[in-house]
Amino acid sequence: MEFLDSHCHLDDEKFNEDREELIKQIKEAGITKLISAGYSLESSKKAIKLAKNYDFIYATAGISPNDIPQTKEELWKMIEEIKEEIKQNKKIVAIGEIGLDYHWNEENKELQKIAFINQIQIANELNLPIVIHTREAVSDTLDILKKNPVKQKGVFHCCPLNRELVKEALKLEFHISFAGPITFKNSKNAEEIIKTVPNEKILIETDSPYLSPEPLRGKRNDSRNVKYIAKKIADSKNEELEKIAEITYQNAKKLFNLK
User: Fold this and answer.
1) Residue of 253, 229, 226, 231 lying closest to 242 (CA atoms)
2) Per-residue pLDDT tens digits for 2-59
3) Closest Cα to residue 254, out of 207, 195, 201?
4) What's the CATH code, domain 3-256?
C-alpha cells in the first residue's frame, strides 16, 4: 500500500534537526511520493532544493496571502522571481500555496487579491495547477476563481469544512484536500462533507509539521501521519483503506502530472 502526501512543509525549521533521517523514515513507511509546498520566496526555494535532492519529493512555489510584502512594487519583484524559479525547475508541479486569508490579515485585502490573481495568470501561462489557501475569505476566493478561470484547475489545500465552499469548488472542477482537522473530535460536519466529495476529487495531506491528526494532536506532524487522514476518509465513505490510498495517490499523480 502506497500513500502520497500532497501538501507538507519539509523545509520548515521544526525539521532542521532530523530532516534527512525523517525523510528516510517517511519513505520506509510507505509514503512513496510527497509534495513540499512553498508559501514564500524563501520557502519555495527550499522546497525546490529538497525536490532536486530526492527523487520522490516534488515542490510547489508561490507567495501565500500571509507572506506577501507591503507594497505592490515589492510584490511584483517577488512574483517575477518566483516565476523564474518555476521556469527553471521541472519538479515544481503547481503554483502555491496562494489565495486569501482574512483571519490573520484584514488590512491588505486588495493586495492579497492582486497577488492571487497575478499568480493564477502565471499558472495559466506555465500550464500548471494551483494550490489554494483560503481562510475566512470564502466569498472573495470563489469570486476570483470564477472571474479568473484556471486552465489546469488545482486543489483547495487543507480545505475548510465549509459546505458552500466545497460545493462551489467542486462545480469549478477543483480537488478537495483533507488534512488533520477532519480527525478532530470537534469537527462535527467532517463526515458529512467527506461524503459529498466524489472519490475522483479527493486528495490527502498532512500540512506538516502543523495540524497533527488524532491521536497525535499536539505533537509535531510529518508525512507518515497522512495514513490517519486516509483512514478517516475510508471510514466515512465505508471504503477499504487500501482503496482510498490508491484513489488519492492516483488523483494527485494526475492533477500534478507526477512521473
Assistant:
1) 231
2) 999 999 999 999 999 999 999 999 999 999 999 999 999 999 999 999 999 999 999 9
3) 201
4) 3.20.20.140
